[in-house]
Amino acid sequence: MKATAIAHANIALVKYWGKRDEPLNLPAVGSVSITLEALSTTTTVTIVDAAEDHLILNGKPASRQQTQRTFDFVDLLRTIAGSESAVKIESENNFPTGAGLASSASGFAALTLASAAAFNIEPTARQLSEWARIGSGSAARSIYGGFVEMHHGEKADGSDAVAEPLFDRKHWPLETFILITSDVEKPIGSTDGMNLTRDTSPYYQPWIEDSQRDLANIRSAIHERDFEKLAEISEFSCLKMHGLAMSANPGLLYWNGITVDLIHHVRRLRKMGLRAFFTIDAGPQVKVICHPGDTSGIAPHLKGLPGVQRIIRSGLGGDARIIDD
Ligand code: PMV
């Protein structure tokens, strides 16, 4: 009747951009991500005797308009469970909200686990990933820790558009610094951005066709622990995604000036022999992924950079899981 789950955020190294179906959040391309220990959402779902669902986000009641997606998602799990009961959802992010860090991946992954347990459903990890994807595409990846691959799948019902663990976090304990350059909310969210790109960019089809190669290459880079190859593919996929978004009409530019300065800075560090690369999602923050052997050498070079408001350091996180109260 009551369950609490924790899930970690993730960042894609081979990026997902574009949907082959919007209501089901079916991705047009596969993606590969790492799960981050330091960023997590803890969610408690309680079955209650009430007329409607309630959501409390970071200690404050959330309105239905603000969070319709969450309520629609709970409806879906309630239908799967064959239940008619209302729920109270209490969700907390351990990282600053409004800092431009996507909380939807960890949020929907934790909500999927906690709701399934509260409604007494016993899904497989594959089902959990499939359901989390309906909440948010990247949430499917947050079901697992370490290195994770999301498949675009072929089926119209989305049953094969699920994430799968590639390697455990112990395989290669990479570290990430998240450099926050702005806490202003992004002007256009990922779903609207993806739709505009599909409808207007001349590069959308080539992006889809090229992605298979990146996926094959990154799998082997991770398998071989080849950092140089990992850096090359990740920066290529990141810049290709942003180039694609910029080629929409009107063009989507998620960066600010500091984002660009940081790209140059990370590339300079690599020239100095420090093993680090950058990746950037639909916002202006820069994530710097480091080889475990060089993290302490890189850290001083990221301190006090102009325009960087805050830095969060993280190792790789584990699977989303139910926790005892
Ligand atoms: O999960 P969504 O719908 O917020 O989309 C995520 C899109 C990117 O973060 C830009 C890339 C990715 O693969 O996570």
Shape: globular
Rg result: 19 Å
What is the string of SSEs from the N terminus onward?
Answer: EEEEEEHEHHEEEHHHHEEHEE
Ligand inventory? (3R)-3-hydroxy-3-methyl-5-(phosphonooxy)pentanoic acid
Low-confidence runs (pLDDT<50, min 5 residues)?
A: none
| Residue fraction in strands | 25-35%
Number of helices: 8
Let me know the largest β-sheet: 8 strands, mixed
Averaged pLDDT: 95
Query: How many DSSP-defined strands?
Result: 14
Helix-residue proportion: 25-40%
Tell me the span between the first and last alpha carbons: 13 Å
Structural commentary:
There is one protein chain. The protein is built from eight helices and 14 strands. The protein is of the alpha+beta class and 325 residues long. Strands 1, 4, 5, 6, 7, 8, 9 and 14 form an eight-stranded mixed beta sheet that branches. The radius of gyration is 19 Å and the shape is globular. It starts with a strand and ends with a strand. The structure holds (3R)-3-hydroxy-3-methyl-5-(phosphonooxy)pentanoic acid (PMV). The site of (3R)-3-hydroxy-3-methyl-5-(phosphonooxy)pentanoic acid has 14 residues, from α4. (3R)-3-hydroxy-3-methyl-5-(phosphonooxy)pentanoic acid binds next to α4.
Q: Which secondary structure elements does this structure contain, and how are they paired or packed?
A:
Elements: E1 2-14, E2 19-21, E3 26-27, E4 31-48, E5 54-57, E6 60-61, H1 68-81, E7 86-93, H2 104-118, H3 125-135, E8 147-150, E9 163-167, E10 175-180, H4 190-200, H5 204-223, H6 227-246, H7 257-271, E11 276-279, E12 286-290, H8 295-302, E13 310-314, E14 321-323
Parallel strand pairs: 5-7
Antiparallel strand pairs: 1-4, 1-14, 2-3, 4-7, 4-8, 5-6, 8-9, 10-12, 10-13, 11-12
Helix pairs in contact: 1-2, 2-3, 5-6
The chain binds (3R)-3-hydroxy-3-methyl-5-(phosphonooxy)pentanoic acid.
(3R)-3-hydroxy-3-methyl-5-(phosphonooxy)pentanoic acid binds next to helix 4.
